[in-house]
Write a structure and sequence with these properties.
The complex is a heterodimer.
Chain A (H helix, E strand, L loop, with lengths): L1 H8 L3 H30 L19 H7 L2 H32 L6 H13 L2 H11 L6 H9 L14 H26 L3 H9 L4 H29 L3 H7 L10 H10 L4 H31 L1
Helix pairs in contact in A: 2-13, 4-8, 4-10, 5-8, 6-11, 8-10, 10-13, 12-13
Chain B lengths: L3 E10 L3 E11 L4 E5 L6 H9 L6 E6 L2 E2 L5 H4 L1 E4 L11 H6 L11 H14 L15 H13 L5 E5 L7 H18 L3 E5 L2 H7 L2 E6 L2 E6 L1 H6 L4 H6 L6 E4 L13 E4 L4 E17 L3 E8 L2 E8 L9 E6 L5 E3 L8
Parallel strand pairs in B: 3-8, 3-9, 6-7, 7-8
Antiparallel strand pairs in B: 1-2, 1-4, 4-5, 9-10, 11-12, 12-17, 13-14, 13-16, 14-15
Classes of the chains: A mainly alpha, B alpha+beta.
Amino acid sequence: MKSAVKNFKGLSDKAIAWIFITPTLILLLAINIYPLIYAIRMSFTNFYANKIGREPKFVGLKNYQKILGDEEIWEKMQITAHFVCWTLLLQALIGLGLALLLNRKFKGNELLTTLIVLPMMLSPAVVGVFWTYLYNPQVGLFNYVVNFFYDFGVFDMIGSSTLAPWSIVIVDTWMWTPFTMLICLAGLRSIPNYLYEAAEVDRASKWQQFIHITLPSVLPFLLLALLFRGIENFKMFDLVVELTSGGPGSATELASINLKREAFEKWKTGYSSAFAVILFVTIFGFGNVYVKVMNKIKER
Amino acid sequence: MATVELQGVTKIFDKTVKALDQISFTVQNGKFFVLLGPTGAGKTTTLRAIAGLEKIDHGKILFDEEDVTTAQPAARDTAFVFQQYSLYPHYKVYDNLAFPLRSPLRKVPEQEINSKVTKIAEMLKISSKLNNKATELSGGEMQRVAIGRALVREPNIYLMDEPLSSLDAKLRESLRVELKNIQLNLGATILYVTHDQAEATTMADQIGVLENGKIAQIGSPEEIYNNPNSIYVANRLGSPKINIVKNSVLSSIISTNAYQLGLRPEHIKLGQGDLSASVKTVEALGAETVVELEYNGIEMLCLYQGSFDGQRGDNIKFAIDQSKVLFFNEDGNKIL
């Protein structure tokens, strides 16, 4: 003990800082940065990971040209965009709505919050599997409930290529709305009550109080939650694979699912590296623009 | 502007704590009424009850003889300046000032809003800050904006909850004068809550002294100062504080059946008369000096005009202006 203290006494603040940072830095370099650079390098070759012994050839921008010119890829991007946009919209609206409700004081408030948050804590694989049962056209609870309100007859959420894209939107919304709700709730709880009292004395209507006090205070929180959800859903894989495995046909084949198939079923390593780089740049670009906009809104 | 009357207002928190106990007083139209009392006396609760932010358990609140006891805050049309600024943080100073005018109950044309906001901003010397965000202001500026947000309206009454308490001494003094001027110019009805006696005496037309949720005394600052009806009230005003002594201490010069006597420091004349005391401390304030005497084993503060040339341990003669002595009984209430 004593000697350890003695040894540390001799180190400068900078050295101590480096001691703490180094392990993380090494890990980051080894499992993030190096593979990224390696993938970027491979994206300019025609490398096939399953063809051992064959020297990969440098092909320049050919992989990128092929991907960006491929209509099928654009279809996957469209499916991904549909999934991301709708899940974000629904999770924002329902999450904020639930947060507003739970921000009121009533009996059982805390128990209800805990229950609502449960789906978020389940494993995506489990959620995927049991929703396939809920979606079952004959015995599934989902179809039963929908038909209870309006008789659509027999329909197959997962089996129909028009309904399947919505089936994954519904499950993701069910699972992740609690996340936006929790963050919005934190935002709502940070609004001091005297602002509402001041507004009430100033004769502002409830609607004006919402527009002028609640919304501007909670918006930065909501936007942050949506940033996280957006990035996650752009990379969505596990939940959808369990639920639909990209089908029927390729109706729910998101970009990341397609990427996995190209890379580890067709073993087009060079080609899929280029695709991965494109996806990375897209997320990175969107994310940066979004953060800039978000900061502007915060400053306003 | 309206005359605001409270009749036996009682507020009970958690079924047992009586925050307000049978409060009755009237703020006349155009008058500056100050509620004075220490923390926890019920000052803020009284204001909140008048604004409608707190429901009262008994009693009535009347605005120009109209009963508003159960009316919503918006219907009462009061303006409230909160202790903690409470500006709308996402808006500029201009929009904060314009906010009450944009209420759906008011529908003021934007042009009129503009002229009103500009006028008030000039009055409070915050014109240059109109385009700043509310959160980018100093404490003094924020409180000016909060006061301005009340002043842009013409409500039934202005309710102000220690608006100057978080400002530094210099700013507090200048805003105090400004606020009194504004009130006189506008002929505004103001109910102002404070624990600061200087604010009370300089601004008030009438002072109501609160003690544990009850009104201890109501009167003009002079009345409260010269004729307090209890030791509690006498202690509220006057700096340095009034001396309260047992009657036995001064029995050689004052014969009375009162239990306690109250002597204002300025009514003890140093260097004259035939009582003798020793000087304990000397505190020079410039124009006057506070001298602490020890007489018959008790300490008394006296206020000496000009600078005092004496020091600790000196023996000094003093006299008491007997016509100004206040008499109290054992419970601390005044004896006539």
